[in-house]
Design goal:
This protein has helices at 10-28, 32-39, 55-59, 64-89, 91-106, 119-129, 131-148, 151-168, 172-188, 190-198. With 209 residues, the protein is mainly α. The protein has one domain (10-198). The longest helix has 26 residues, at 64-89.
Length: 209
Amino acid sequence: MFDFVHPINWAVAGPHYALAALFGYLLGSIPFGLIFVKLAGGGDVRQIGSGNIGATNVLRTGKKGIAAATFLCDAGKGAAAVLVLRVLYGNDMAVFGALGAVLGHLFPVWLGFRGGKGISTFFGVTFALCWPVGLMAGATWLAVAFLFRISSLSALVTTLLSPLYMILMGQHLYATLYLVLAALIWLMHRANIARLLKGTEPKIGAKKA
């Protein structure tokens, strides 16, 4: 069951993994939502809705095209981190790059470590690491969104199930990563979880005061 685990000489490999994570972090920390909304004349997206820089909050500006571009670019930076590191150094490095990319989106150094909630970048790294799981995760998000029209609930269910999807695909190393990513994304959604429990979480497309 644990044949994917292999001994690591951290004294030798640690700096390389750290650099892979840093590379992913720097890509992940590019605040596309903030940049796109400002370029479109929408002001500072951090002063709108939930205050985060992700696609869901950008959608609250009413600029659907900008929200779509934000999602694609936030996903793209995660996918780029994984694909570049995989091609150059292999899967282990890609895993650290994926983690770094999500952390960069959540905690961008340029914005005082206050970024988005990670779901777009999560999808990007998922499709790059294992595209069948990306399809399953996407189908899960869409199904929950269709039923409940609540973006945060879709994200929570999707991230919760993704480690299981990785296990089903035989990707045990990735499943370990996705337990960490799910924990991070659930942590960033703690306010959403509180509103879900109260029944006050806004639905997709609603403008939040």
